[in-house]
């Protein structure tokens, strides 16, 4: 048996939102090739809005922009993850049309 390694190119799109020329939030959209289905999907990571700018709809604007970007890039699906303790974020994602689909496992190195 032989294990081979090949680096694949990755594409990351960072979408930010500014108010009065100051960045108040951002989200990253990772475009990932699914070789077994010959398509791309998007992974949403690092959605962040500065604490003093929360509850203004900025997170929603960023997520809608991320969803549109994934569509523009012809992604077949989008994954957004959250810790179990962040029930409010789960509701936020569900309102945007995401489904509670699976389970994520993490190993800290």
Q: How would you describe what is shown here?
A:
This protein is an alpha+beta fold and 109 residues long. The chain has a domain of 68 residues: Gcn5-related N-acetyltransferase (GNAT) (Aminopeptidase), CATH 3.40.630. The protein is 22% helix and 36% strand. Strands 1-2-3-4 form a four-stranded mixed β-sheet, covered by helices on one side.
Count the DSSP helices.
2
Mean pLDDT: 92
What is the 3D form? globular
Q: Based on DSSP secondary structure assignment, what is the total number of beta strands? A: 4
Strand pairing plus helix content: what structural class? alpha+beta
Radius of gyration: 16 Å
Give the CATH architecture of one domain.
3-Layer(aba) Sandwich
Major sheet size, sense and barrel closure = 4 strands, mixed
**Percent of sequence in beta strands:** 35-45%
CATH topology of one domain: Aminopeptidase
Strand order, main sheet: write it out.
1-2-3-4
What order do the SSEs take from the amino end to the carboxyl end, as H and E?
EEEHEH
What is the helical fraction, as a range of percent?
10-25%
Distance between the termini: 27 Å
Oligomer: single chain
Uncertain regions spanning at least 5 consecutive residues: none
The CATH homology group name of one domain: Gcn5-related N-acetyltransferase (GNAT)
């Amino acid at each position: 048996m032989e294990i081979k390694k090949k680096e694949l190119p990755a594409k990351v799109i960072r979408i930010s939102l500014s108010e009065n020329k100051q960045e108040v939030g951002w989200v990253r959209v990772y475009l990932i090739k699914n070789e077994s289905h010959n398509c791309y999907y998007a992974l949403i990571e690092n959605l962040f809005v500065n604490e003093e700018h929360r509850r203004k709809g900025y997170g929603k604007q960023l997520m809608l922009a991320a969803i549109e970007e994934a569509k523009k890039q012809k992604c077949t699906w989008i994954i957004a993850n959250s810790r179990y303790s962040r029930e409010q974020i789960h509701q936020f994602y569900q309102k945007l049309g995401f489904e509670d689909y699976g389970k994520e496992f993490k190993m800290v190195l």
